[in-house]
Amino acid sequence: MTPATNAATAPAMTPAPVAPDAVSSTPTLRAALRRSGFWVAAGAGALLVAIIATAVAGGSASGGPPLAADNAAQAGARALVEVLRNQGVDVTLAGTLEEATAAAARSTDPTLFYFDADGYLTRDRVTRMAGLVSRTVVVDPDFGTLQALAPGVGFGGLAASASRAAGCDIPSAVKAGRLSPGGKTLTIAADASGLTGCFPTGRGAFALVARRDQGRTITLVADTAVFSNDTITRNGNAALALNLLGSSGDLIWYLPTLADVARTGPPSLGELTPGWVTPTLVLLVVVALAAMVWRGRRFGPLVAENLPVTVRASETVEGRARLYARSGARLRAVDALRVGALQRLAGKVGLSRLAGLDEVILAVAAATGRAPGDVRATLVDAVPAGDRDLIALSDQIQDLERATARATTSPPPGRMDL
Amino acid sequence: MTVTGRFVALVALGVVPIVALGRTPGTAALVLGLWLLVVLGAGTLDLALAGSPRTLSLVRSLPARVRLGETVMSDLYLTNTGTRRLRAIVRDGWQPSAGAGNNRTPVLIPPGERRLVSLRLAPSRRGERRVNQVTVRSNGPLGLWARQATLECPGRVRVLPPFNARKHLPSRITRLKELDGRTSLLVRGQGTEFDSLREYVRGDDVRSIDWRATARHSDVMVRTWRPERDRRVVILVDSGRTSAARIDDEPRLDTAFEASLLLAALASRAGDHVDFIAYDRRVRGSVQGAQGTELLSRMVDAMAVIEPELIEMDWSAVPGQIRAVTSQRALVVLVTSIDAAGASTALLSMLPQLTRRHTVVVASVADPTTLLASRRRGNREEVYRAAAAERAMLDVARVSAAIRQQGADVVTAAPADLPPALADRYIALKAAGLL
Q: CB of A155 within 8 A of CB of A130?
């Protein structure tokens, strides 16, 4: 903005036909880019750094699906899977029971690793899973799984923190020696048959329970610590895991996913809507954005103007009236009314403004024919006890003024008073 | 850069191909993408073909002054110096009080040609109304996208006070003329001067017979008198804090200007010298040594840009200001406001310095609502308001009495009545030869 030109350069009435182009205060695209270039670059750089940092941090976070074969986080099982692969075991990953079934059909005498952290599989499907191969390792079974696979096995709570020896004749457990301390345990019912418990923790609880039945072996491992990346190196965990899973050349690593859950109920809203609905919604958003630009783009900068203050002159009178009313200053208010009335009355009865109070009262009483005592009470003596009295007194004063005005001004001859 | 409503409609039209061709989500998304590409391409093409709003040369043609209440044409000539035809909408960036109205003018300028954009300004406030910029929005040939630039093109117009009180001028001039040529019977005394000799007619005061002239002529001659001319009138307007207050939705300052203009017009017609000062703590505007029509035009010009300052009036410096204007005896008119006694102490303590040398009139705008409020006593609130109004009127009466005691004269009236009341007081003083 430049200040207005002074009077000397004011434009003439007849403008010249050719004049230089007007100076534009709107920056050109190039100038705007040059001015804001640093911030655009800085913003883009910050965004890039944030994306890279998120990607890098996401890989090493402790999250991720537990015991996933490709999860390098603490809860994952990538270490175990990699070691098995290096040892020549062909590890097949399966996300659904159908994939696991297909993998079992492809390979000869595989081992099935099964861990269902979220309880996706129903009891029927758990039974089907257990029937796929001859060796199944079930990690951290839930109640439904136990009911389906080994009804005689129950939950034994958390073990004490001492490390445990094998205490059974299963080769893998014997080779492992001792397990890392703590973790979940399983119990074996007294009347159950065909069940072998290993790594006892006292009170009939075991960290591993094996069930042999018609040539099939189902090994129930109570805790995930035996397989997970962060605890597999402790004590004999690694030996147990490798011996359990590496006994044959093929391993099916089956972690059930959402795809295992049978789909029920009516078709969803997304399946019912036609294909063009979503693109149309996107188009409407674009239309809304364009309309915002269309209506919202300002037609040049705002024009500033200094406006004068607005003060009503009657504010002081109003303020004083509110002060009187709030503090109930009745006597002060009526005094103001009386002094004003007295001055006007003095003028009406022909006395000077400086005439004494008694003179005015007597003159007014004489003019109106009222008793001087009454006039005095109205103009001087009466003290209003409440707002009702104040209003009455104010009316009396006005009435007295009117009466005096009537008495002192004779109506002009030949004209009716309206 | 901006888009038009037509572009928004074009984008919305994409619903038709998406619904018609998009059987599956995949094809619908493809159609959507293609449509967006098409409209973006059309917009870019349109923008590339639009004439540049920067290749415009602007020339403004404005009258320098306008009286408040009148309208004025603001002319803006736009010359297209570019090579493309310019379809544009032009907004002339006047301040809101300039009253430029809607202010969106479509123009179509072929290359090398010039077009005129005329705006009718109806200013709503006196003072200097400015314009600094012209915004041009240039549409492409398809009317989809537009280029926009704000160009600098300053201009200003001075809005003068309306001088509505001039309707009172003819009647006052008539009364002034009646003073001329009267015999000493009515107005002879100090402040009148010898006018001419004329023949005696019955009814003339025999004391005004000029015996020497009678001896020279064959007839009885009498002297006639007229009011003294070439007196000085100094009008000092208080532009301080209290002049911002609005009475009848008009600031006291504007009423003061109206009264000053009427008085100045009348006094200059009567042959007196009028000086004008607007003062609070420093001189905000002054007109000295002007005569006739030049006086009024210079006064309105000076008044146009004076706004009430929110500072207290410095009365102690006023005698010095008057002395700087004239060393002769003068009629000093102080246009201010008479409020409570406390607020008028400075005025009262300064007055003796002025009244010793000059005839002083203090003019003040009275609030007609105060008188009205003192008469309305229907309920509790109104009685209290009446009491407060009475108190205010008593204060004004007390201060007025004190001013009269100091030897000055007081004129108070409602905003519409103050200018004629002040003019009447001037005529009365003139008739009494008190100038």
A: no
